[in-house]
């Protein structure tokens, strides 16, 4: 069976939508992943180009390499430079009520892209996927999708340019026709190879990849982009979603569609250390957007893996190991001030700053961020959710 | 792999939606098929009961054993006797422009059931299936679906009680939710076992069985049967469709739904003889509803396999072999007069009637039937098709 071979070949590190595991429980080797997946590194010249084209400082996640890989992002920028439009597509599988910080990353970044490039955006809530994978009821999946939509909206998207949809609500019509067209192009062997499915998996899993594929094609949204079937798609996502879009890009030319471009992030590490993604099953592995200031402080102090030394003397002497230090890692995601971050890394790395001080600063940064999110979310009304989810034309022209 | 075992076990005769082949190229053994599939024989007491409940003579296809097997048809009649409702569900894969007589059989029978029991009916046009299996474009599949709908409507269905839908148009909403619920309950191994799929098949095929399954559940049609989620479903179909509904019946209780009941027909034989179904790829294997009187006469005279003897002398002496004689077989489907049919069988079987005379009578019967169909179809307007395909409540009460 092709599956077994593929899984065996990739046994050193496995990254797919359901499993992220590094070699021997260590760190994910992102350089190797780029080779393994066949995507491209997002280098400084591309980041400089984004700065030039958008006339603003690139997002922290670009400057600091959180989004580190891409597929054809350069082509999207070429076209943008010529005045050609594109649209953004991202999504979320609504499997839990409360989002953690890792969940926010693609949305924070997508909001930046939408603002910087002034482009329309579709956000897919894969409630059908979660219903099938997590064995949630249809109703519960849809409820979670709507709850998660509020958190997504709280990230600050522009309602005039953003369409949020639930698969259970939206699958049908042109979207379903594209699902069928995609499904025709993917053999069972191929799907098992790409996604690692087995004979014991249910056929719902086999049916799902086309659902996640087709928002890459503007013709799936005839009401959103009427007459804009050539609009190029750019997908910001974590790199574990790459298998879906490898499949999509493989199939697209056979359907006469453009391949979606991708811009892909590394994983946000668990509090306990950088070996994989955070786990919803262990609430102490992550900071949630629902955590109180006290929760945040406790979690950081008790669980955030420190690269500091065992004794103050030793720490003063050799400094912290920044490579494994979670507080520094988290600050590099969320502390916007480059100068302050460099200062902390230098002082901490050379032993003049202690773990407790770094954790204190991180606690401040995250508490403020979570509090801001909480307030923004509290202001999201049901009417706003309805407005984001209303099927209507989106402006595909630049303002 | 479970598939191989299943295929091997069933290697004597294979009957599934894509293949019908008897042992050693002979006749399908329907008794054995009943055992193989685990369905029930439709016996005389059930037929008598239908007569009693509907106060009319049972359809020729019941009286003559064309519909010969069932699943829980007795339960549907029990409920009907108590005053409980049911609805009919049948369908067609629109793979060709012109229907042949074999295609009409389930529709002729379904029309009778609708009239006799005064019940609502849904007719699924699986344009998505044909797009995937026959590699037709979406547009061509939908065009064929609409053309076929005209032939179906020409069979005389009651527009106030009949909803015809194309999957490409209708999949979505509650229908899609039920597809996901069904898909969750069927493992890939199981689907490969039931349907004989292989790793080289595309995932669209694996995704399709839930599409054919869910019209068995009234909750898939919330606009048709509002508040009637308990309405029982009865499916008239050829027995090659049984695998879909074995799967559906297996899954239904796990979803809290009633199992659909089935009433299943044998196959209409090819002109060349009774080993399987007619083939669209050989136009001389079947009489089409578009054939002219001359076509019909020619086809019957040239291709209809005769059970008559080689010489008139021998024929007069030992008579025709009615078991293999196609003209007699066809007459037993379409000659409504029981007395005349018995007369022909007796005279022909005992050598007093010659093949030519039987073929002549068959030509008259089919020419009249095809001519009647042609006229009815010519009267079907686009507005009528729209009316049958409009999503609207159907009366689920008895008149």
How is this structure best summarized?
Chain A is an alpha/beta fold. Helices cover 49% and strands 11% of the residues of chain A.
Question: Any descriptors?
Answer:
homodimer; 399 residues; alpha/beta; 7-stranded mixed beta sheet; 49% helix; disordered N terminus
Question: Overview of this structure, please?
Answer:
Chains A, B: This is Tryptophan--tRNA ligase, cytoplasmic. Chains A, B: Belongs to the class-I aminoacyl-tRNA synthetase family. Chains A, B: Its EC number is 6.1.1.2. Chains A, B: It comes from Eruca vesicaria subsp. sativa (Garden rocket). The structure is a homodimer of 399-residue chains. Chain A has 20 helices and nine strands. Helices cover 49% and strands 11% of the residues of chain A. In chain A, helix 1 packs parallel to helix 11, helix 15 packs antiparallel against helix 19 and helix 17 crosses helix 19. By secondary structure, chain A is an alpha/beta fold. A seven-stranded mixed beta sheet of chain A has the order 3-4-9-8-5-6-7, sandwiched between helices. Chain A has a two-stranded antiparallel sheet with strand order 1-2. Chains A and B meet through helix 7, helix 9, helix 10, helix 11 and helix 12 of A and helix 7, helix 9, helix 10, helix 11 and helix 12 of B.
């Amino acid at each position: 069976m092709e599956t077994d071979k593929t899984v065996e070949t990739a046994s050193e590190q496995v990254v797919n939508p359901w499993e992220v595991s590094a070699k021997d429980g260590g760190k994910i080797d992102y350089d190797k992943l780029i080779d393994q997946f066949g995507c491209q590194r997002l280098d400084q010249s591309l980041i400089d180009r984004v700065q030039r084209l958008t006339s603003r400082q690139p997002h922290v996640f670009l400057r600091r390499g959180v989004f580190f890989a891409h597929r054809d992002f350069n082509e999207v920028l070429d076209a943008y430079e010529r005045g050609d439009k594109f649209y953004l597509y991202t999504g979320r599988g609504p499997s839990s009520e409360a989002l953690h910080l890792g969940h926010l990353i693609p949305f924070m970044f997508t909001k930046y892209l939408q603002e910087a490039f002034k482009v329309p955006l579709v956000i897919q809530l894969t409630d059908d996927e979660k219903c099938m994978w997590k064995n949630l009821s249809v109703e519960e999946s849809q409820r979670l999708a709507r709850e998660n939509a509020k958190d997504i909206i709280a990230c600050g998207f522009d309602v005039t340019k953003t369409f949020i949809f639930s698969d259970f609500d939206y699958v049908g019509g042109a979207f379903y026709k594209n699902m069928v067209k995609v499904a025709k192009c993917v053999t069972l062997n191929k799907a098992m190879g790409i996604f690692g499915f087995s004979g014991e998996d249910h056929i719902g899993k086999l049916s799902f990849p086309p659902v996640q594929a087709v928002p890459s094609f503007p013709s799936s949204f005839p009401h959103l982009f009427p007459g804009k079937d050539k609009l190029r798609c750019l997908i910001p996502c974590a790199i574990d979603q790459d298998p879906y879009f490898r499949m999509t890009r493989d199939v697209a030319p056979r359907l006469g569609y453009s391949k979606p471009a991708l811009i892909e992030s590394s994983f946000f590490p668990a509090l306990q250390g950088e070996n994989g993604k955070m786990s919803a099953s262990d609430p102490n592995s992550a900071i949630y957007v629902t955590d109180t200031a006290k929760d945040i402080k406790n979690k950081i102090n008790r669980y955030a893996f420190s690269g500091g030394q065992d004794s103050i003397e030793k720490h003063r002497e050799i400094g912290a190991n920044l490579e494994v230090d979670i507080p520094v890692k988290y600050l590099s995601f969320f502390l916007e001030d480059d100068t302050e971050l460099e200062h902390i890394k230098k002082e901490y790395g050379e032993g003049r700053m202690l773990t407790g001080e770094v954790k204190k600063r991180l606690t401040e940064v995250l508490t403020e961020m979570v509090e801001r999110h909480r307030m923004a979310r509290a202001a999201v009304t049901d009417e706003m959710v309805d407005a984001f989810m209303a099927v209507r034309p989106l402006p595909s022209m630049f303002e």
